[in-house]
C-alpha cells in the first residue's frame, strides 16, 4: 500500500487524508465490534482500514468516489471475496434497507454533516464507528451547559448512544490536515417518535438553538409565533424555567416539549 500511496495524487476536493498507523486502524476495527457483521465503509481510499475490516466482517461494501483508486481497490477486491467496492458517491446511493449494516469510516471532512445525517436517518444502520474532525466529535459528545453543546449534540443523542474511542493527531495522516481528529462510535437506540413527530422534534431542537444567546422562550416564539406567555406556562409545567437557554436542557426536555407541542398550539 505504501507504493500506491506514493503514486496516488491526493485530491483536496475529495477531502483525502489517508491514515496509515496500523495500531490505530486495528483499534478502530476492534472497537467497532463488527465480527461476522455486514459493514459499510465510506471513502476507503487505498484500503488502509479496509484491509483490517475484511478480516473481521462478514462482508464489507466500500463506497469510493475517486475513480483513480480503482486499480488499488480492485486488486484488494480480488483478494478478499467478502469485499465489494462500489465507485459512487455515498450521498447519492440508496442503501439496501432490508439488511442490517454497521458503518466504519474515516469520513471526508468536507461532507461530514450530510454523511452523519444519512446514517442517522437510515434505521437499519445499527452502529457507526467514525473518524471526524475533533471539533465535530466534541459537539456530538457534548453535555448540557458546555460550550460545545448544540442542536447536533441533541439530535445525534436522540438517535444514538455515543462512545468516545480515541483522539487522533493530524500528524498521523498523509498528507497532514490542518486539524486533529477523533474516533467515536454511535449505537442506535429505539425510536421514540414516528416520522411526523420526529420531524417536529428536529425542527424544535434546531429552532431552540437558532440564536444561542437568546432564551428558549424567545427562540420558540420566533419559530412558532405562539404567545410567549403560553410557551412560558407550558415550560413551567415541564419544570423548565423561563430564563433557561437551549444549552441548559437535556435530550429528555426536548422530547417532552415535542410531546406537548400540539397542546401548546391548541391553546395559542
- Specify the CATH architecture of the largest domain: 3-Layer(aba) Sandwich
Biggest sheet statistics: 7 strands, mixed
Q: Which structural class should the secondary elements be placed in?
A: alpha/beta
CATH class of the largest domain: Alpha Beta
How much of the sequence is in beta strands? 15-25%
Give the beta-strand count. 9
Average residue-wise pLDDT? 91
Separation of the first and last Cα atoms: 64 Å
CATH topology term of the largest domain: Rossmann fold
Radius of gyration: 21 Å
Poorly predicted sequence stretches spanning 5 or more consecutive residues: 8-16
For the record, the count of structural domains works out to 2
Q: Strand-and-helix sequence, N→C?
A: HEHEHEHEEHEHHEEEHHHH
Biggest sheet strand order reads 4-3-2-5-6-9-7
Give the proportion of residues in helices: 40-55%
Topology:
Blueprint lengths: L1 H6 L10 E2 L2 H11 L5 E5 L7 H7 L2 E5 L6 H10 L3 E4 L14 E6 L5 H10 L3 E9 H7 L10 H9 E9 L4 E2 L6 E8 L6 H14 L7 H9 L3 H10 L13 H16 L2
Helix pairs in contact: 7-8, 8-11, 9-10
